[in-house]
Every structure is written in C-alpha cells, then in structure tokens.
## 1
Amino acid sequence: MTPVELSRTVLRAVRRAVDAGELVASVPERAQVAPPGPGGRGDYATNVALQLARPAGRPPQEVARILRSHLADAEGVAGVDITGPGFLNITLDGGGEQALVVEILRRGARYGVVDEPTGELVQLHYSREVRAAVTAHAVARILRSQGALVRTSCEDEPAPAWAAVLGVSVDAHGTPTAPAPLKVNIRPVPAVQDPTPLGRDAARWALLHPASHDHPRITVDHLVQRETNPLFRVRYAYARTRALSGNAAALGFTSAPGDVQGNATHLVDAHAHARALPRNAVALGLASAPGDVRHEADALVDALAAYPVTLATAARHRAPDRLARHLVTIADVVLVFQHTVLPLGDEKPSAAHRARLALAEAAGTVLAGGLSLLGIDAPEHL
C-alpha cells in the first residue's frame, strides 16, 4: 500500500465512523500520512484524530480509539497503535516498500503531485527584488503541483536578467486590480548581492535553500563540487542513480521492485564507507551500521514516502526551502545506499540487487522531480 492509498484508507475509516454516528464531524479532504516521528512505531503515522478532536468535541485519544477499530481490519493493514496525544501508528502488511517503489516509478515526476485541481485560487504578489521574484516563481510551481490555480504579479516590471538567467516569469506587473480569493505577499529577506553571476541553478538554490527569514549567501560555494555544497550533493546523488542503472545494464540486469535484503548482507569497507558519508547521513544514524542494507533501505524508503507530505507542507507555508532541505535529506541517504546496489567481485546479480536498483531509481526520480519544481536542472553527469 502506497502513502496515497493509505491516506484514502484513513479517510474511508473516518467516513465509516461518521456514517455510524460514532463521530460527529466533517470528513476532511485529505489525511496526511508520513513515517512516524520519535516515539512512534509501525510504517506510517497520521494525526487525523487530533485534527478531528475539536470539531467532534472529543479528546484526541478517544477519537483515535474509534478510528483504530475501523482501520485495523482494512485491507493491507497489519496493525494500528495509538501513541502520544492521539497519533495513529499504522503497520502495513508486507509489500509496502515495494508498492511505494512501484508507485514512484509509475508516476515519475508526478509522484507527490495532486491530479485534480483543488479549486484554491492564489495571487502571489512581490516587490521588484530578485529573491522575492525567484521565491514567488518557485512557490507558484509548488502550489500548482498541489492543485492550486496561481497568478503571479510584481510591483514593477521585473529586470530582464531575472527571466534570461534565472528563468523567472511573471503573469503581470503593477498592483493587482482584480480581487483574488487569496492574496499572498512574498517578502523574503532580500539578497544583498546580485546572484545572476552564479548562473541559473546555483543562483536559484542560493536564494531558495535558506528559509525566507534567513539571509541568503551569494557565494561561489554553491558552484563547488564537494560534499560541503548541498546542491552538489543533491545533483550528484541523482547522477549516481543514473550511473547505477547504466552500470547494472552493463552487468546484464535491470531493476525490479522487491525485497532489498535477499539472502545475504552486502558488505562494504567500513573505513571507505565512513569517509563517503555526508554529514546529514551521520546525523540520521547511518554511520553506525555500514553495509546494513535493511537499515539504509528503510531510511531511504522513509524519506521517499515523506516527499508528498513535504510538498503539501511547502505549498501550505509558501516555503520552497522545505522542499530543498528534504531533497538534501534524500540525497544524503542515496549517497550511502548506493554502495549496496551493485554486485561486488564474483557476486552474481540477484533479485535483491534488482530491488535495490529499483529503489535507487525511485530516489533519482524524486530528486529530479523536486529539483524541477525548484526550477533547477538535474544533469545525468557531473
């Protein structure tokens, strides 16, 4: 069961509880599911019980117990636990990881994208300032990916270089005259230097990766090809997933979603592995178990499963930095997981290798899609 399918399952459980008269509340349009946080358990968690508690006039724990009874017997659900103030922690039957990979590879760049318009109409308005222009352009793309209809406007005619170098487009300039159902002023901390000498990709990353209240660093550090540069790590991780596919083809096998563990643990040299670990991967705890295929695969699956939630959150808060940071998280796990994908020495390609390759390709798909929403290219070779 994919995160999208699980979200629908949760909504069906809410609807059954409402229809049975156990809850008096409106069924929400969407139920967010994501890997459980600290203290959680299972494959996914949802806060839908906390969301419904106030309108239902009941404590979140009580709402969670009602929903658990409707979720526990749903197809594909192995168990439901309640943790914290009322989080529902859901354990899936086997195959959840495989279904996620299949879903990502099937949808491609549209993984995490809402298929139907939501009817939300948004007017993004910004001052004639380069960071505001790039931010509004990225926010518009993210909002559209989540089904919103978006119109952008600038207080004055944008500088020609913003379009020529940074790829910024605007629907209108001047103060909007027609009222919009939702008008949002995009006002990040301005860039104190001209970012255009960095070129489109590095300049957009320099402006979008920091939170809007932080000062952007417009330096050549965004151009260097080393692990201290987050943009390089994201693009390099994508390039590595493409290289893995090419190397696998040379060895005579292709990807096939399945069990990444197989019958053997794929070992790599611990010292070389540790030297290759980016800082964020160390923070994720991956350095403690070099060569642990399951541990690394689980971390990657969790990061990929959280991508649709990240997109929805970035759209809701008008915050492209949330998407950029999540891409860094995915990339850092990919750069660890890549060492487990191909056979070593005399090892023959197995079903596990094909499954690991499929997971790596799914990660590359998400990285390329996320960079595209930020207006940044994902080159296959670096």
## 2
Amino acid sequence: MKEQIRRISNKLTKTRVLARSQELRSHIPATKRMNQSVLQEMLQKYQMVYVKPCCGSLGQGVIRVEKTAGSSLRSKNSGKHAPGDSGNYRYQAGMQIHNFSDYDTAYRAIHKETRGKSYLVQKGIRLLLHKGRPFDIRVMVQRNLKGQWEATGVAGRVAHPLKVVTNGSQGGTIYPVEVLLRPYTSPEKRTALIAAMHDIGVKSARQLSTAYPGLQEIGVDLALDRHLKPWILEVNTAPDPCPFTKLKDRRMINRIVQYGKAYGRIYHLKCMKAKQGVV
C-alpha cells in the first residue's frame, strides 16, 4: 500500500516529486534521464555535470563529466570534432580520469561505465572547498516523537583527495558544518545558513511525504555554490547515520538514534570507512 512505502530508490522519481514544490524548485539542479543527446545538450549548457545511477547509494557509480574549451588537455582518444562541437571532454569515475577530443568517443566510454543501467544527468554545482577538497552537507530529517518532521542533524562531508564524491563510504572525511563554513561566512551568516539548510531539509521531507506518507526519515545532501546558495543534490530515504558518529558532539547522533527507535529503525553504528576530520 502507498502509505507503507518508506524507501524510494529512484532518484528521478524523488526529484520530480520535490520539483512540484515551488519553494524547493529553485534549489533543485536541472536533472534529466541520460541519453547521448541529453548529456551533450547539458554539457553545452553547463560545461560540468554529474552522471548518476537512477537507483543507487553510497556514491557508487557517480561520474563527473566536463566540457573544456581549448586543446590543452592530452586526449586519451583522438578523433575529429563532431559538427558544432568544440573543446575537449573529460570524465572522472572513481580515481580514474579520462580525456577525449570528441563527444561521441567520450559518450561511448561513459555509456560503457554505466553497464546498461539507467542513469541520470544533473547540472554540476561547483562545491565549496576545504583545504582544496570539495565538500557538501548532509541534513538528517526525521519524524520526532510527536510525529512531526524535524531536522535532527547536520554534518559536513569532505571528499577523498582523489575522488569526486564526498560519501564517507568512499573515504570522505566528516567535519562539523561550522568548521567548513568558517572561511566563507561571518558567525551571523553561518547561523542563518545552517537554519536555512534545516528548513530545506524539513520542506523536502514534507513534500516527499505528500506522495509517500509512510516516510519516517530522509537524508538531504546539499551543495553550497560560491554564492552560498544551497542546492539539493540528492535525497536518501534510507539515510546512513554514520557521518554523525564522527562528530565529537554526540547530541545529534543520540537524537537520531532515539527518534529512529521510536519508529522502529535500529541503526548499525560501526562506521569504519568515513574519517573524522581534525578540527
């Protein structure tokens, strides 16, 4: 039954439900199902995009693709430019970076990486950096003991030095959000920005629960661009609480566990892959 659904795996489905909200729409990067023409069109428009499996988690299978002007890159594959095509193409999957001189060759390689699975392409947001490494923000949102949506935790995730994803399971490092935002904000702006991210998280939960009233928790991954605007990268309906175990302040993880227990979720908190940031 519809009200019993607690997990939604398809990222495109979740994005479309979120986009029904006028308040959230401006925080959602352009996202489409990937095919050869869509990827090319979005690269022409945005220069950098992320290609993700429609169903997947833990940052597995995520590819960053860039269209670069000029010919300074050394191309792994040579070929003539397609009509209307100029520049080079580069993608990174895992720790491997591949360069191409034409789009068709690049697409064939990317398509091979997808192994026949359904993928989406999302406008790339250039993340803020911590010591040269990109980071994003995980906001945990749960139904509290009164059944109301509440933001119960917020943590910063810094990417592995050689990867494009920030997930702890991919070797990311967890920091208090305040530490990561300090170089970019005043204390007042920082407080307001964190409150705004909490608000986006709660509104995302409310919006998704209009279609899936059985939801009890979500994890919202937010990017901040260079203007400090939050963008919803992804929403996980079975969020891993592991990032919050790496924070010295235990109040967030204690509250997360308490609320989860109330609606029947028991978390396994042996979190070995994510690192704890040195503050």
## 3
Amino acid sequence: MYKSIIIGTGPSGLTAAIYLARANLNPLVIEGVQPGGQLTTTTEVENFPGFPEGIQGPDLMDNMRKQAERFGAEFTSGWVEEVDFSKRPFTVKVDGGQTYQADTVIISTGASARYLGIPGEQENVGRGVSTCATCDGFFFRGKKIAVVGGGDSAMEEAGFLTRFASEVTLVHRREELRASKIMQDRARSNEKVKWALNRQPLAVATDENGTVKGLTVRNNATNQEELVEADGVFIAIGHTPNTDFLGGQIKTDANGYIVVKPGTTQTNVPGVFACGDVQDTRYRQAITAAGSGCMAAMDCEKYLEGEMIHDWSVTLDS
C-alpha cells in the first residue's frame, strides 16, 4: 500500500518522483519497457537548462532517477496491464500478476512517436533519424534534411528545420497532402522546401560507414526506386499516447490524450493526475514534461493533505 504510485518515468515521472520523495511520500515508480522514456534513445541534449555543454539523453535520465532514489522513491519494472480507479485505494496490475495499491496515482506514460517501420529507421534513431525537429534540428545546420509526412505536423517541422538546413525535402506517399491549406501554403512559399510527393519511403539509406545519406523511396508514378539525398531524416507522422491500459476510466480526447483540468494535472477521477506527453498535445519537450511532473506532484501532495485533514476531523467528531 502506497501513498502514491507513478506509472511511467521520463522527465515528467522522474520529476514527480523527486518532488514526492522529498515530501516524504515515498512513491512507487513503475518503469515500463523503456525506463527513462524517449530521451534514452537520443544522444546529445542541448536544450535542457543547466547543462551548458549539453548532456547525453540516457545520462540525464539516469541522473534524475538517482536523484529520486536518493530521497526515497522506490522503483520497480513492469508493464501496467490494468488499473481500477473505481474505488480507493486504487489498484494497479502489472504483467506477471503483481498488484499494487495506492491512495493516489500519477500517470506519466508519455506518447510514442509513430515510425514508418522501414529498414534502417530504428537502427539510426539519434544518429540521423529523429522525430523531434525542436530537439535535433540544430545538429543539421547547413545540411540537407528529409521530412516524412503530409499533415500539419510535417509542414510545421519542415518550416522549423529550414532555420538550420540548407534544404528540406518533404516526402509524402500521396500526391495530395493532409495538411490544412494555410500550412501547405506556408511550406510551398518557403524557398528552402523541396517536394517529393507520391513517393513511398522504403528504407533509410546509409553509406559504407553507416552514416545516413538519405531516404530510399519508390516513385509511385514510375514504380522506380529513387534516393532522396539527406543528412538527416525526420519522421513527422504523429504520436500515439500510451493510454490503452486505462480501459476508458480516464477522460481522453479524440486522439487518446488524457484531458486535465486547465492549469492543473487533475483528471476526471479525483486522486488521479497526469503529466508529461500523455496529456500534452502541443509542446512535447523534456523541460515542459519535467515542469508538469512538478505540478502533478504538488497537486498530488495537496490532495493527500486534504484527505488527511478530512479524515482527522471525522475522527475528532466521532
């Protein structure tokens, strides 16, 4: 039985763990199949405050974990399969049959970037393949970039990347784009943006040294293979929030992101809070995730204080 359980790690979950542990609430943190979240797949992180020379993503997450452990957070590994938020204490079931209970739960399971599933993609994540222009665009200053996608996100990513790249080629498997007209117009008016429409991505191409050299595509009009030359390949086909395990007990939007009360991390279930990318459809940055983790811990602590005050007064009256 715990005062609080944190489901998921990453910057949000680990920050929440640090704050709750420092408040002597000794939270249990349940790590999933990717302890530390998406930052563990990146190399250099240069935009997290406090590291003027940058820091490796895995090192940053390891430091956060050690900091939480120092103050008394408990960690366990497992994949949460089911939760019961219908009554308190809340129940969290992990694969293997282990069950945990807590007065409060913080959900920080993040959102997984969608990938193409083509050869050379996963092997080069953080080494020329990225899903975050804001995170990694700086590393491609003066170089060629390919952006895969046809929606608003792809148009926005391409526009942002033109600040750094000498050329950005938008690759989409259809001739028509899904993006809104205004976003398409912005992209088409940018002289640095080139187009490779009606092209099906086949593989991330590398040279003999394993360095990314572009994207192999099939021209759907001619059925011929082509190489879109690029030093970096950015996948911009969306994210999927990791909320399936909730079983519909927590209110989500049409895309599955958890809905929180504006300005807080409160969900529709009192005592259950959400932070990080699982409830963030806009920013999706390590620093904003960490900030929301702080908010969740503080909301959680205040909630527990309220409950304790309420129980105490009932005891006195009786």
## 4
Amino acid sequence: MRIGVLQMTSGIDPAVNARTVAEAVAASRVEGAAMVFTPEMSGVLDRDRGRAAAAIVAEDEDRVLAATREAAAKHGVWVHLGSLAVRREDGRYANRGFVIDGSGAVRARYDKMHLFDVDLPTGESWRESASYAGGEAAVAVDTPVGRLGLAICYDLRFPALFAGLAEAGATVMSVPAAFTRPTGAAHWHVLLKARAIEAGVHVVAAAQAGLHEDGRATYGHSLLVDPWGEVLLDLGEAAGLGFAEIDAARTAEVRARVPALSHRRAIPPVQVVPA
C-alpha cells in the first residue's frame, strides 16, 4: 500500500501550515497514495507561549483540522494528521493526533501520553508539561494500510506503549515528531528501528525539519522502517513530501521468522538481590 510522508518546517501561522498539509494531500492522491502522514505540531510550532496561545483553539475551531478534513474528503485520501495543539474543555492544552478517513471523518484521536520535560547539554530546556496535559489512553485504528498504532514524538522512548499496541493487533505504528537536532542525531534512527523490530511492524515517522520561525531547529529525517529494521524512506533534512510502500506480506514474513510477539510474557515483579 502506497503512503505519503510529509516533512514540514511548520511556522507560527496556522493558515500557512494548513495550506502545506492540504497541498500534500492533493499531491498524495496524484501519486496514488492511500494515506498521508504529517508531523507532530503540523498546525503551529511556536515556543513563544503568549503568541502561540492565540492560535491554540478548541478542536472544532481549529482551521488546520478543518482544512485537512476538507482536503481528505475532496481527494479521497486518508490522513494521519500527526498532531495539533488543541485547547481542552478544562482550559489546558492537548498534543493531539487525528486519523481522518477519505470522507473527511475523524476516525480516531490520540493525546500524547509522555511529555517532553528535559534539559539538554546544549542549554536547550523544554517543559511540555507546563502547558500540556498528558493523554491517558493508547489508541489503534483500522486504516487502509493496516491497523495503525498511534504515538507522538517522546512516546518513542517508551517501548511498553508499542508492545501494547502490537498486542492489540497493530501492524503499522505512526510516530509523528519534532525531534531536536541533538537528540535526533543521537537517537532517532536507532529508536525507530528498535520499535519496528521489537513489535514486528512498519513504523512511519513524519518529522519536523529545519530552522523554524520561532527560532528552534528540528532534526528532520522522516522515516519509513520495515519490520526487519530496514529503512525504506529517509527524507533527510529538508521539508518535502516522499512516498513509499507498506507491504503487509513483509510483516507476516518477518513475524513468522522471528515470532517474538507470541513469545512475550508478562514480567513479574523484579526481585532485587542486595549486595
């Protein structure tokens, strides 16, 4: 099944970002893709909290979501809108992904569970939990490319989430992201390969890339990794749209070769032996 993967350099204006996503959906139809994947924070990427607040609205008011649903319906293409910043009913924000079908209907939502609170050696400091509430549910949804397990960026570092999604029947995982350059260079490829190999799935990781209007820099290298850990697509460091194939037969072949999913056991409490 052919997919499109959109690598973006999202800015601070949702209208501009909405056009980028809509154009990618249209181009994906021309290229024969059944589904297109976009990065984390496709709607707006702005670390100025005061300025960003004006662009973060309730889901039913979000112009990027509306434009994406309209484009999906117009072109008959499914979309995993990697994530948007949306305002919850309690006034806090959610980092929320959406799976939209070819009629424009929202089939699934996923709120990022693990929030990025780190201090890097470069001096970069991030406190996602200062503005966002973490999600409380793991989500998988049936799509034209298979049962799709949903994750977002920092979730990648928590393999138990991917194990749970695989046990729920997911054959493809999506990890939209906005990785920093230092963490991306060190960990991006190896973690995505590990999650694909562990769960015996294709992993689609649409990423943010380049220098953004708010001054941050992201790593790029949107990937499609197969269940054997082979990289089928790597979009490098520039924004753009790429295409690749997800082969369900490859998943079945790899899982038959190394049936790790059927060998998985519940881990009992750890017995700590004192020194």
